[in-house]
Specification:
Blueprint (H helix, E strand, L loop, with lengths): L2 H12 L2 E6 L3 H4 L15 H10 L2 H14 L5 E4 L4 E10 L2 E12 H4 L10 H28 L10 H15 L6 H8 L3 H12 L3 H19 L5 H7 L5 H12 L3 H7 L7 H4 L4 H5 L21
Antiparallel strand pairs: 1-4, 2-3, 3-4
Helix pairs in contact: 1-6, 7-9, 7-10, 11-12
Length: 305
């Protein structure tokens, strides 16, 4: 079982949300530890709505504070400024913070609906969450041991391809967040200037440009298949905090504005004759209506649900 399957299993079992904040390069280098972008964020419906409302500002600040506490290596629980309870489990490896598991996303108002000691109540759920977090934490430490056994933790021995691969994976995993080259350099334990020069030399582009391209590719999916969304909302869904800057970057990389792209790439409407025609089998009631094929429309697995 890989890490993604394990986290999603616990989400279903606990009827909760599980996310991971990583601080070790193994999570971007080992296929068994790679996650989808939303798994690195608090992705419950309520949390998504809050992030869209204030451009991730309050959530980012709250996560920053929680990471400072997590560096001490002790598990803790708390409520965020929006009233959401969660359990944070630091994963310490060789004396350093390798990751933080966030379990919970239970709104404080929901916790009042049942007595704390009742079967299935808040206290029992929290106990199950603590047990699940401990299990996943041990799983991660084993994976980190296996990574280190292959000299994966010794950055001095890595070829240039290692840094480029981690750069690509880091962007794919965190393009929805406010990330910078310095964040990747800290993760890989290398000098930011050296890493930036290496990326530009090997790709012909800066880290910032690679990040912008990834966000723009994501925005094309929203512009093409979600016509009800405004340009401002599309920008926020793809990691841009400013819609004007998003439009400038889009025009620079695509040669047209987001609005023009949206208009020119609308799915072709059905002909009037086809839309007004009733299939014979439907009219007679002898067969059920055809089921829409979910694979007919492209979908980005990286887009937030």
């Amino acid at each position: 079982m890989n890490l993604l399957d394990l986290l999603q299993y616990h989400e279903r079992k606990l009827a909760s949300s599980v996310s991971l904040e990583v601080r070790h390069p193994a999570f971007y280098h080992c296929d068994s530890l790679k996650l989808t972008p939303d798994q690195y964020l608090h992705h419950a419906d309520f949390c998504r709505a809050v992030k869209l409302r204030d451009n991730h500002a309050s959530c980012s600040e709250n996560k920053r504070r929680s990471l400072e506490v997590a560096r001490h290596g002790r598990c803790f629980s708390s409520c965020c400024p929006h009233g959401v309870w969660e359990y944070a489990c630091p994963v310490m490896y060789r004396g350093e913070l390798a990751a933080v598991l966030y379990f919970g996303n239970l709104h404080s108002e929901q916790e009042k609906e049942a007595p704390r000691s009742a079967p299935g109540g808040p206290e029992e759920r929290r106990k199950k969450i603590r047990m699940a977090a401990a299990f996943v934490s041990e799983f991660l430490k084993i994976e980190l041991d296996l990574f280190s056994a292959l000299d994966g933790a010794n950055a001095k021995q890595h070829p240039e391809s290692y840094y480029l691969e981690n750069c690509k994976n880091f962007i794919n995993c965190h393009f929805l967040e406010n990330i910078a080259l310095s964040d990747l350099a800290e993760l890989l334990k290398v000098n930011p200037n050296y890493l930036g020069s290496l990326i530009r030399q090997q790709t012909g582009s800066s880290f910032r440009t690679l990040l912008a391209r990834r966000r723009i590719e994501e925005s094309k999916i929203y512009l093409k298949f979600h016509k009800d969304l405004s340009i401002t909302k599309v920008a926020r869904l793809c990691g841009f905090t400013d819609s004007n800057y998003f439009s400038c970057v889009f025009r620079k990389l695509c040669g047209q504005t987001p609005l023009t792209y949206k208009r020119e790439n609308s799915p072709d409407p059905l002909p009037a004759s086809a839309s007004n025609t009733v299939p014979p089998e439907t009219a007679t009631g002898n067969a059920s209506a055809p089921h829409p094929d979910s694979s007919s429309a492209p979908h980005s697995g990286n887009a937030p649900r």
